[in-house]
Every structure is written in C-alpha cells, then in structure tokens.
Amino acid sequence: MIRLILSLLVLGLVGLRASSTPNVLFLFADDMTWKAVNALSDEDIDTPNLDRLAARGMTFSHAYNSGGWHGAICVASRTMLNTGKQLWKAKAAEKTLEKDYVAKDRTWAQLMAKQGYRTCFSGKWHMQMDADGVFEQIRNERPGGMPKDGKNAYERPVEGRPDPWSASDPKEGGFWEGGKHWSEVIADDFGHFLAAEDDRPWFMYLAFNAPHDPRQAPQEILDQYPLDRIELPKNFLPVYPYRKPMKAPQSLRDERLAPSPRTPFAVKTHRREYYAIITHLDAQIGRILDQLDASPAAKETFICFTADHGLSCGEHGLLGKQNLYDASVRVPFLIAGPGIPAGKVTREPIYLQDVMPTTLELAGAEVPESVDFDSLVPFWQGRPKRTKAVYGAYMNSQRMIEMEGKKLILYPAAEVARVFDLNADPHEMNDLYGTAEGKRLAKRLFAGLLALQEEMSDPLDLRSVYPDLL
Fold first, then answer.
1. Which segments within 319-362 are labelled E, that is strand?
2. How far is 327 from 194, CA to CA, in rounded Å?
3. From edge to edge, which strands make up the β-sheet containing 333-336?
4. Cα separation of 452 and 109, whole Å?
5. Is the dihedral angle over the CA atoms 273, 277, 279, 280 positive or is it negative?
6. Model confidence over 370-407: pLDDT tens digits?
7. CA nearest neighbour of 81 among 331, 311, 283, 286
8. Nearest to 180 by CA among 170, 190, 189, 172
9. Structural domains in the chain?
10. In which residue ranges is the amino acid composition biased (Basic and acidic residues) (predicted)?
11. Which one of 173, 195, 286, 287 has the fewest beta carbons within 10 angstroms of its own beta carbon?
C-alpha cells in the first residue's frame, strides 16, 4: 500500500497520466509572429481556436528562434528543432544529417520512436535530410520552402492601380495547388492518422506552410478584414536605414513583396492577407482540436503550438524574418496536456526548440547530452525557473542579445549598435545607444553576448568591431 501511495504521488508530481507514454501533438506554423494570436497581444486578429488552446494550457509569452545562417530562416529553425543543436552547431551538422543523425536514429522523431511511439508527419519539412527516413508514416510532405508563387505576387500593391495578384483566387496556385488549401489538407491528414488502428502512443508532427507567403485564404475570410479594420504597426517606417549592412535589402525575396518605400496602403494590404491566412489556419487547428477532443486520446495527449520564427509585416519598414526585432525572432508558444495548469502565462525566456527535450521527457526518455535545449517540464512542476539571456544571429551581418528586458542589436558591417529597453519600449522604437545610460547598458549586454557567442560556437569576431564596448 505504501508503495502504491508513493507511486501515485510521483505521478502527480510529474504531471503525467497513469501510463508513462502520453500522445504528443506538435502543431507548427511558418512565419508566424508572437503577436498573431489574439489571446497573446492587442492585435485585432481572429484566432478563437488558438485562444482556446491558450486557455486550456500554458503560454510562454517570450519564446524565440535564435536566427539563421541564410535567408531561409526556416531551414535553421527546423534543423535545430529536429537535431537539438543550437544555431552554429546545427549549421555545422547540416551537410551530414543523413549520416550522423538519421542513420544513427538521433532525430527528434526517431528518439520518440525508441520510446515505442508511432511517428507521423504531414506538411513542410525543408531540411537536408529525408523525412522518409525519420518518420514511420508520412502524408503530403511539402519538401520545399514555400508554395509556388508568381511574379505578380511581388512589388504590390500600388495605391490607385489594379492589384495584379489575388489572395483568394485558386488560379494563382500556391496554397491552392492540388485542388485544396494546404492548411485544410493537414487537418484532413490528422484525421487519417488519428483513425489508425494502433495501440501505440503517437507523436504527430503537423507542419503548416501557413502563414508563409503567398498568403492565400478564402474570400469569406478576407472579407472579415476590410482595410479600414487594419492598423499600421506602431513602429511602421517607410524605409529601414540599415537594410543593406544587415543584409536585408529590397532585393531580398521577402522584402520584394511590397514596393519600397513602404506605404500605409501596401503594408495594410499585406497585413490584411497575413491576418486572413492565420484566421484560416486557426480554423484548421480548430478542426484538429475538435477531432482530438471527440476521441479517447484527448485526455492522454500533450498539444504544443508554435512557429519556426516570426515575421515583420511593416514593422520598422521590413517585410521578412531576416532581422532580429521581436516581430521576427519571437513566436507564439502554447502547450496543454495532463498536469499543465490552465491559463498560466510565463514571461521567462525560452527557445522554441525547447519543445524537443520537453516531449522526450514527457515520453519517459532520457534526453541525450548532445541536445543543447532545455526541457520545459520544470515550469509546471514548480521547480526553480531558469533565467537566461536570449541569443540571436543572422548570417555574419547581425547579432543580438536580449536579457532582463533589455536588448542589444549589432550590425557589424556598419559598426552600428542599437539598445532598447523592452519593458518601457516594447515596439523597439527608442534607440538608447546615444545616451550615457544606453552606452553603459550596451557594455553590459555586450559582455553577455560575448559569453553567448562562446557557448554557441559563434565564430564572428565582434571585439575588433566594437572595442568601445569592451
């Protein structure tokens, strides 16, 4: 009897069901900024299903992606997620993923399979390894970076001229290619996976291409967002002054989506389409949640929703994710399941890739020492919370540290440093670097960044560029 009581107490602390093998549902968006969930911000966007997921679980309001080694930030983010390696270590591993990870059963899904999981995948992959060798079941893999678009999708719209591209016309292809919107296909695939007759616990990795451009949604959803409902971001700029040294010029594919200089009309149009494809994505997540809730698996399933990175959509005059402002590096992160308190929000900083060791711990696996990320289970078990600085990088052209609500952004090619107090200035509009207090703050943050560079195996020499910050 004593042993039984002790066992029940242990299970209560761990926050799992009686079986040590809960199901895991991972929902992954593409290009979705943290603000694009109504429950998480003051954005006027309709996301009722993500809002209900936030209400039934825990929100990590400050979840980050640490950057990328080329313009396709998604490749770096997904490689980190599936290998457990931080940015520059993931880059070093990229060319040998098949040999060093897939062949040795070291990817996220393969580690789950070792715990007896049926592993299922649908959607965007976009890594230098084959999903076929990683997952047991695959439906509708989208191996490329984005749906096909056309030249009419760029340098638009121009006020007073006919728009050459339609976000709701299936003739444009893109998300409509194949006859059904790709987000709807993933919701269908979840139903197929769920209906399988298999007694094993399952791990489902459902990777939406939405809301990546081309941002397409049914007309009835676009109609929910008349242009006069759309507000400009508070930090809107016609042109960002450091676009070239930060390697995000107008010639960069993402930045070419709208004409430069940016106009309120063009930015509002792009934000309207962004909101619409997210609301359509939210509806598909609602279908998935409804199917799960109607199944016997509902009470035994952990659900996590996040995105590979965020997106600037007019913030600071930028239209991509190749920058280190919060709109681009910060993502929504919601997790719900047995033992996770409902409606809880934490501001403690995490990396989105922390979900990988989190699910391994939930599955009863020993997290490999090679994994650089941290399990989030302590956050709802009442163990001491971690406090850490967040690192960010884009190629060799940008570096960032965010620590205790303060942020330093560096553009080494221009020898530019920018400092923000995010507690007082959440929109990152007031650069403090020119002030005495800002310079003192920059030196403290710079010391933290140098330490993070060493931890991250970041080879970029910042000391010679910024001797005044030493």
1. 330-331, 333-336, 344-346, 350-351
2. 34
3. 137-142, 118-124, 202-207, 23-29, 301-307, 333-336, 58-60, 344-346
4. 28
5. positive
6. 999 999 999 999 886 677 899 999 999 999 999 999 99
7. 331
8. 170
9. 19-381 (3.40.720.10), 390-469 (3.30.1120.10)
10. 142-162
11. 195
Q: For residues 367 and 195, give the distance between their C-alpha atoms in angstroms, rounded to a whole number.
A: 30
Listed in sequence order, the residues at least 6 apart from 220 whose beta carbon sits closer than 8 Å to its beta carbon are none
pLDDT tens, position by position, 274-302: 999 999 999 999 999 999 999 999 999 99
Query: Nearest Cα to 361, choosing from 108, 58, 43?
Result: 108
Measured distance CA(309)–CA(67) in Å, rounded: 8
**Could you write out the DSSP letters of every residue in 395-450?**
TTTEEEEEETTEEEEEEGGGTEEEEEETTT-TT-----TTSHHHHHHHHHHHHHHH
For residue 73, give the 3-state DSSP assignment.
helix
Structure tokens at 353: 């890739």
Note the maximum CA span of the chain: 79
Prediction pTM value = 0.95
Q: How many CB atoms lie within 10 A of CB 18?
A: 9
Nearest to 44 by CA among 189, 224, 177: 224
Check if the beta carbon of residue 236 is closer than 8 Å to that of residue 260: no
Structure-token pair, residue 297: 């698996």
Q: Is the peptide bond before 157 cis (omega within 30 degrees of 0)?
A: yes
Q: Where are the alpha helices (DSSP H) in 94-204?
A: 97, 108-113, 182-195
* Amino acid letter for position 450: L
DSSP 309: -
Question: In whole numbers, what is the pLDDT of the chain averaged over residues?
Answer: 95
For residue 327, count CB atoms less than 10 angstroms from its CB and return exposed for 0-12, middle for 13-18, buried for 19 or more.
Answer: buried
> Who contacts 422 (Cβ-Cβ below 8 Å, separation ≥6)?
326, 402, 405, 406, 407, 428
